[in-house]
Amino acid sequence: MTLIEKTIKETGVELGFIDILNSNFLKNCYRTDFCWAHQPNSICLAMSKNYLKMAMHNPNILGVVTTPKIFMKESHNIPKSIVLLTSADQFFYYLHNAKLHNQFDWETIAHSIHPTAQVSDKANISSLVTIGAGVVIHDGAVILGNTIIGRNSIIYQNVTIGTEGFFSKVVLQKKIHIEHFGGVKIGNNCIIHAGSNISRAVHFRNHTTIGSNSHIGIQTNISHDCQIGEHCDISAKVCLSGRVKVGNHVWIGAGAVVSNQVHIYDNAEVKIGSVVIEDVPPNMSVSGNFSVNHKTHLRKYLNRDAHEIV
User: Fold this and answer.
1) With 124 labelled, which of 64, 69, 243, 279 sits at a CA distance of 20 to 30 A?
2) What distance in Å separates the CA atoms of residue 168 and residue 177, rounded to the nearest whole number?
3) Where does CATH 2.160.10.10 sit in the chain?
4) How far is CA 143 from CA 26, 125, 188, in A?
5) pLDDT tens digits for 82-130?
6) Residue 290: is the preceding peptide bond cis (ω within 30°)?
7) For 107, how many CA atoms within 13 A lie in the half-sphere containing its CB?
8) Closest by alpha carbon to 87, among 22, 21, 12?
9) Superfamily of domain 3-103, CATH level 4
């Protein structure tokens, strides 16, 4: 019996288990992931028809947890296991926290600190960390496991990398934290300024990534599964929520907040203090709360009535 089947046995009655279609694929589901998984042998949650469609057409997904309302049996004839429950989301998070990936043997990351790296004796470096040539790590930095730091990068004082991020759900009438099993990859020639945090990815073998030649400002928070491109400048006290994707050559001003799963495309600018809740197209500059095209926002501001001016 697989861990997935054991979990169904443990929670099925309370979480409204209905059926498993093509159950033979469950034995090859080695890890949980999102429906857009890039790692093979994954099982995912699909709580919308769009996510279900994505999962069904993703060859890396061998199992899908969803509800009968979302899944139409007659509409799909694709070789994957389908686990149907009325509380599919609760089941998936319960399964995730049960550490499905621990049931299998995996090659672990090699612990390696290059002899030219300068690591403060007041920094806290966990095992299973790779630190490249010429890296400098300052006092008070905490580098947790499954972190890879590329050559010539600088990690300033009190930076935390590889932490658990905010991800809470209610499962079986109890509020729980969804554990993070992934890692962090930082490219070459990056700078992470003092007091910033980069949380690791939620799913095993996934990474929160910072592309080469990108700089992260003081006390900025990079949440789980964010993907930041190359040559980016992310200013002080920026908050990137989970799964935000940032292209190359992007500039984000101080104090900006970006909602989860937003995509900021190449060469875009997010002005200081903006609140971004939707994708930002390439080469566009946005500002405001909620953010809009910066030129439109500026024009409206300049044309405001006299009585609006305090």
Assistant:
1) 243
2) 5
3) 112-299
4) 35, 5, 16
5) 999 999 999 999 999 999 999 888 887 789 999 999 999 999 999 999 9
6) yes
7) 1
8) 12
9) MurE/MurF, N-terminal domain (3.40.1390.10)
The pLDDT assigned to 77 comes to 72
Superfamily covering domain 112-299: Hexapeptide repeat proteins (2.160.10.10)
Low-confidence ranges of the chain (pLDDT < 70): 73-76, 290, 292, 297, 301, 304-310
The Cβ of residue 19 has, within 10 Å, a number of other Cβ atoms equal to 12
Which secondary structure element, helix H or strand E, spans residue 93, and what is its range? helix 88-97
Give residue for tokens 């935390």.
Answer: 160
Long-range contacts made by residues 236-241, C-beta under 8 angstroms, separation at least 24?
236/193
Give CA separation, 61 vs 7, 22, 65, 225, 261, in Å. Answer: 19, 13, 11, 18, 20
**pTM value surpassing 0.85:** yes
How far apart are alpha carbons 165 and 182 in whole angstroms? Answer: 11
Find the radius of gyration of the CA atoms of the chain. Answer: 22
Which residue ranges does the chain devote to CATH 3.40.1390.10?
A: 3-103
